[in-house]
């Protein structure tokens, strides 16, 4: 007598997959394939409309291969009123998208990326996260935006960092899955009542990219200030987690470079102007750091070949890789994918270059599918809309 097999519900199949995954199974077979994606990722669990219709367990499984046909159900429409909007939304969304593109392959080697280059947004990977999951880079950037939206103060930024660390504030799924050691140490000090600007590590070993990866919103906030004031605010925000001059100088360079792109300068001009700015305003205070930035400050970073560009979390290698990826490509996609396919600290480097490229090429240059796949995109858009308003008001009154 043949017994008819019980048809499992989607939720039961998810649960079965999770059990298999916990038992070490890498390729999941219990989940039915979405019609759209069956052809591409046969035999693996995936993210699709079918599953979204049922309540998913906390840790859902996603394919290790990219799914070019993935589509988000609810779309946001970003209102762009002028070129400046396009640059602003382009830079900030470009940053988040770069982060989300890099997250699944963070810490992968360059060899791995050569064998299996990233061409599309992926899920799963390093942290087993769904499509469009962004990391600490975006969370801490959003913490800064929130504070600018509500009368910027360094204390407010610190308060947001603590909320992020303790409660998963401004994270995709209310949990922190990726945080740098220096940032964690600094936030621990904040929690113990140390003055925010005294929390950042001051030693040479503290020069990872943890402050560079979260300062982008300052480009809009400080762009009409006097250079001295501009530098002071960038230094202050960096010092919350990274107080060494090397880290601060990377932030100063990045912000001035993006300001130049925002002002409509061509790439070469922006690069040249930024070098001049650093030489004029930072040469004395940062004299001991100038030599470490030689490959950037002598204006030749774009002339190096790929083997000469490292892509680690060391702040100088990060900014070199980002600048190099931006200057040697001709579109948003090319720039961020080139950065990711260097391997290493892929999410942070792609986020930083995404900020540059999105500003330069504008919001429309970012593939819509990548924006629509971002986790919590509606909330990000809402925050950015308020940010644009706050910055516009500030500019009006500064004239
Ligand atoms: Mg990250």
Write the layout of secondary structure elements.
Layout lengths: L9 H13 L26 H4 L30 H20 L7 H6 L20 H14 L4 H14 L13 H11 L26 H5 L4 H13 L5 H18 L4 H15 L5 H4 L3 H4 L17 H13 L4 H9 L5 H16 L6 H5 L4 H22 L1
Account of the protein in words:
The chain is mainly α and 399 residues long. The protein contains 18 helices and no strands. Helix 3 packs antiparallel against helix 16 (346-361). The chain starts with 9 loop residues before the first helix and ends with a helix.
> How many discrete domains?
2
CATH superfamily descriptor of the largest domain:
ADP-ribosylation/Crystallin J1
- What portion of residues is helical? 40-55%
Distance linking N and C termini: 86 Å
The rough form would be described as globular
Order of helices and strands: HHHHHHHHHHHHHHHHHH
Indicate the low-confidence ranges by residue numbers.
Answer: 29-70
Short structural description:
The protein has 399 residues and is mostly helical. The protein has helices at 10-22, 49-52, 83-102, 110-115, 136-149, 154-167, 181-191, 218-222, 227-239, 245-262, 267-281, 287-290, 294-297, 315-327, 332-340, 346-361, 368-372, 377-398.
């Amino acid at each position: 007598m043949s017994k008819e097999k019980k048809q499992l519900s989607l939720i039961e199949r998810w649960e079965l997959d999770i059990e298999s995954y916990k038992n070490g199974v890498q390729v999941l077979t219990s989940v039915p394939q979405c019609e759209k994606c069956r052809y591409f990722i046969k035999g693996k669990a995936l993210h699709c409309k079918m599953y979204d219709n049922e309540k998913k367990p906390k840790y859902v499984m996603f394919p290790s291969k990219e799914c070019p046909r993935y589509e988000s159900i609810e779309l946001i429409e970003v209102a762009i009123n002028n070129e400046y909007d396009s640059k602003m939304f382009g830079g900030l969304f470009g940053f988040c998208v770069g982060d989300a593109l890099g997250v699944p392959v963070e810490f992968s080697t360059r060899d791995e990326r050569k064998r299996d280059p990233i061409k599309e947004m992926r899920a799963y990977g390093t942290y087993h996260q769904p499509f469009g999951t962004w990391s600490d880079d975006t969370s801490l950037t959003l913490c800064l935006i929130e504070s600018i939206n509500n009368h910027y103060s360094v204390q407010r930024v610190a308060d947001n960092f603590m909320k992020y660390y303790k409660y998963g504030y401004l994270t995709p799924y209310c949990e922190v899955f990726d945080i740098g050691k220096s940032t964690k140490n600094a936030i621990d000090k904040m929690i113990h009542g140390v003055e925010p600007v005294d929390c950042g590590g001051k030693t040479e070993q503290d020069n990872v990219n943890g402050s560079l990866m979260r300062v982008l919103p300052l480009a809009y906030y400080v762009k009409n200030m006097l250079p001295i004031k501009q530098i002071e605010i960038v230094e202050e925000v960096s010092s919350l987690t990274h107080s060494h001059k090397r880290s601060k100088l990377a932030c100063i360079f990045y912000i001035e470079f993006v300001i130049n792109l925002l002002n409509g300068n061509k790439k070469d001009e922006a690069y040249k102007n930024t070098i001049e700015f650093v030489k004029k305003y930072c040469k004395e205070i940062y004299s001991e750091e100038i030599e470490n930035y030689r490959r950037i400050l002598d204006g030749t970073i774009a002339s190096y070949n790929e083997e000469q560009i490292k892509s680690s979390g060391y702040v100088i290698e990060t900014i070199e890789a980002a600048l190099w990826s931006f200057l040697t490509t001709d579109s948003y996609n090319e720039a961020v994918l080139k950065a990711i396919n260097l391997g290493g600290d892929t999410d942070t480097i792609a986020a930083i270059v995404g900020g540059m490229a999105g500003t330069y090429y504008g919001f429309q240059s970012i593939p819509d599918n990548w924006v629509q796949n971002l986790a919590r995109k509606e909330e990000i858009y809402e925050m950015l809309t308020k940010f644009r308003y706050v910055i516009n008001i500030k500019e009006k009154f500064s004239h």
